[in-house]
Amino acid sequence: MLEGKFDEASLLKKVIDAMKDSVKLCNFNCTENGISVQAIDDSRVLLISLLIEAGSFEDYRCDRNIVLGLEMESLNKIIKNGNASDMLTLVAEDSPDALNLIFEDKRRDRIAEYSLKLMDIDQDFLKIEDMKFDAVVNMPSAEFAKICRDMKTLSESLQIIITKDSVKFNSEGDFGSGSVVIKSFTDLEKTEESVRITLEKPINLTFGAKYLNDIIKSTPLASQVTIKLCDKQPALFEYQLPSGYLRFYLAPKFED
Amino acid sequence: MPQPIISQFFLPH
């Protein structure tokens, strides 16, 4: 049996909101360590890897491994009915045909209970080896989101160029072009405002702006985003959860 | 610029 209680529904609300526009059907794999998901978007360009460790829950138990096949849009409809500050408990039997979601208001005696039908989802599972990256950028997630939104107004592609201590986001469109350069910066008082660039080799990669604009829907999850890049390899965009992560692997565009 | 699919980069589990 699975029983996982979040102190606040807001964490799962944000996670589902970040994923629902990229993937429609997901298997949520529940083990004693927590809940993990691997899913690929319909155009097969973006891979999402979610890990909500047991430590992200107030209480968590899962006696046997359980797979919950969930339709993200339906899950989102139910999740939106709960308040962000409600306690949220996920409950499923050992061979479940439904996931139960219980929202409890902390101040009043109000309990809302929902049941979501499960689906049998046949999904490929890809093995993600430990990847080597030539550049790692840690930056404020809100700053990254604004750059992705701004650059998408010009072009469907966004170029990321990293040299010693700066990252250049470049967009070449039909009616004009634009770029934003950010440099390494340490804010000792507000560390979440800092930009850190770790570089082994310079990077020049191009990505679909549409996918980056789906990835930035994770912004409310974490104040910083970590971007890991290597030539001709998928880039990794990572948002840390209190215990776990939401990762996006995005295939770069390149000429053969 | 061509857009490769993500599974080209990873092995099936």
Structure commentary:
The complex is a heterodimer of chains A (256) and B (13). With 256 residues, chain A is an alpha+beta fold. Chain A has four helices and 19 strands. Chain A has helices spanning 10-19, 72-81, 141-152, 209-215, and strands at residues 2-6, 25-31, 34-40, 46-53, 59-62, 66-71, 87-92, 98-104, 111-117, 126-127, 135-140, 157-163, 166-172, 177-183, 196-199, 203-208, 224-229, 235-241, 244-250. The longest helix of chain A is centred in the middle third of the chain and has 12 residues, at 141-152. The model of chain A has no long low-confidence stretch (mean pLDDT 95). With 13 residues, chain B is mainly β. In chain B, 0% of the residues lie in helices and 15% in strands. Chain B has one strand at 11-12. The radius of gyration of chain B is 9 Å and the shape is rod-shaped. At the A-B interface, β10 of A face β1 of B. β10 of chain A pairs antiparallel with β1 of chain B.
Please outline the helices and strands:
The complex is a heterodimer of chains A (256) and B (13).
Chain A: E1 2-6, H1 10-19, E2 25-31, E3 34-40, E4 46-53, E5 59-62, E6 66-71, H2 72-81, E7 87-92, E8 98-104, E9 111-117, E10 126-127, E11 135-140, H3 141-152, E12 157-163, E13 166-172, E14 177-183, E15 196-199, E16 203-208, H4 209-215, E17 224-229, E18 235-241, E19 244-250
Antiparallel strand pairs in A: 1-5, 1-7, 2-3, 2-6, 3-4, 4-19, 7-8, 8-9, 11-15, 11-17, 12-13, 12-16, 13-14, 17-18, 18-19
Helix pairs in contact in A: 1-2, 3-4
Chain B: E1 11-12
